[in-house]
Amino acid sequence: MPETTEDAVPGEEPGRPAGAALLAATCVSTLVVNANTSAVSILLPAISTDTGASLDTLQWAITGYSLVGAAVIVTSGALGDVFGRRLVFLAGLALFIASCAVIALSGSGAGVIAGRAVQGASGATILACGMSLLSVATSGQGRVRAVTVWGAASAVGAAVGPLVGGLLVDGIGWQGLFWIDAAIAAACVPVTLRGIAESRDPDRSRSIDFAGTVLIAAVLAPALLALSEGADWGWTSAGVLGCLALALLAAVAFVMVERRVDEPLVDLRLLRDRVLIGATVAILLSAGVINGLMYLVSLYFQNPATLALSPFQAGLATLPATVGLIAVTPLVPRAVKRLGVGPVIGAGFAAATAGCALLVLVQADWRYGAFALPLVLLAAGLGLVNGPASSASTSSVAEDDVGAASGISNMARYIGAAAFTAAVATVNSSVGASHLASGEGTAQALAAGLSRACLLLTIACGVGILLSVLAARARRRRVRPGAYGAAAASHAHTVRTVGGVGGVSGVSGVGTAGTEDAR
Asked: What's this model's pTM, rounded to 2 decimal places?
C-alpha cells in the first residue's frame, strides 16, 4: 500500500473525500460490529435460560470472540493488502452474516459460543479492512473527516448496543439482535460491490504469517481455559498445569516462527521499545477492565436476587459507563497537548481506580443509584487512557514501523478483553460459590463475588498508573483535526498516526488498526 506521511492541517488542500458508498458501508458495518459486541453481555441471562447453558459456560461467548479476534486482526489486514481489501472486507461481511445466523438458530450454548468465535474473526476483518479501504481512498482533510465519522460510528455502536440488545430481548427475544445485525450487514454487501473500488498493495510481500496466527490462538486458548476453570479444577491440578504448559510451548514456538518469517505477525524487534510496551500494556489493561466490568454488572443488574432489572433496564443502567467513555473523547487531544501523555494516562487510570475501588464496597442492599458514580468515574477515566495510549504506541517507533506497532496494540486490546473477562468471571463465580457454601444468602454471595472481582480490576488500574510513567516519554505535538477522529475510534481500534500522541497529530498515512498497510 502506498505511504502518505503528510498530516491534514488547517489550510491544507481538501484532498480526496470518501465516497458516499464507501463511507456508508464502512461506518455502518463498524457500528453494527461494535453494537453487537457490546450487547452480548446483556443477552447472556436470556441465552442461558433458552439454551440451558450456565452463565459460567457462556462467558466463552465473550472470551472466545476476543481470542479469535486477537489472532485474526493483523492477518486480515495483511490478506487485504495481498488479495484485495474490498474482497477481504466482503468476506468479513459474509462471515459475520453466517455467524449471526448460526447464533440465532442455536439451541445450545456450544452453538452460541462457536458462532461467537466465528464472529470474532469476522468482526476483526470488518474493522481492519474497513478502515484500510477508507484510508487508501482518501487523503488530506478528506481522510480526517472520514476517520472522524468512522470513529463516531464505532463509538455510537458501542453505546447503543446494550440498549438495543436489552430492548430486543424484552420484545422479540435475544435472537432478534443477531437477525437484525445480519440484515444490516447484508445490506452493506451490494453497496460495497457497486460503490467501492478494489485496492491492494502491489509492493507488499505475498507472505502471510498463518503460522503466527494459529500459534497466537494456541497460546491464548489453553491459558484462558486454565484461567476459567482453575477454581473448579484446582490451580495445581494436572488440567491447569497441562494447559499452562501447552500455552508456554506455543509461546516458544511463536517466538521462533516470528524470528524467521518474512512478514511477522509481531515484529519482535519493536518489543524493545519501552514506550511502545508501556502504551500497549495500558491498552490491554483499559480494554480488559471495561470489558470485565461490563460483563460483571450486566449479570449483577439482571439477577433476581439483586437489582432484578429487565434486559432493557440493565442496558440502560450501563449507559453512564458508555457515555462517560465517549464524553471525554473531545477533551483528550487538548488535554494531552496541555499536560502531556503520561499525566493524562495517569489521571485516567487514577479515576478508573477510584471507580473500581468504590465498587469493591458493594453491599447486597445497594440500589442502582449507588453504582452510577463508580461507573462514570471508571469509564471516563478509561476514556482518558484510550486515545493517548493508542497514539503513543505508534508515535514512539520509526515511521516504517507504525503499521506493525498499531497491530501490536490492537492485538493487545483483544487479549485484554478476553483475559480480564475470563479472570473476573472466575473470581466472581468462585467467591460467590464459597459464600453460598458458608450459609450466606444469594444476594450477599453475589455482592461478595462482585466485590472481589472489582478488587482485581482496581489492582489492574493501579498498575496502569505506574505504566503512565513510561508513556510520559512520548512527545507532545500540536492538536490537529485528525486527532478527534483517532481519539473517537481509540476505544475499539488504534488508528495510525505519525509523529503525535493521544490523537494529538492528525491522521496520516493509510495504516490503521491492524497492520493493514505495512505487514
From this structure: 0.88
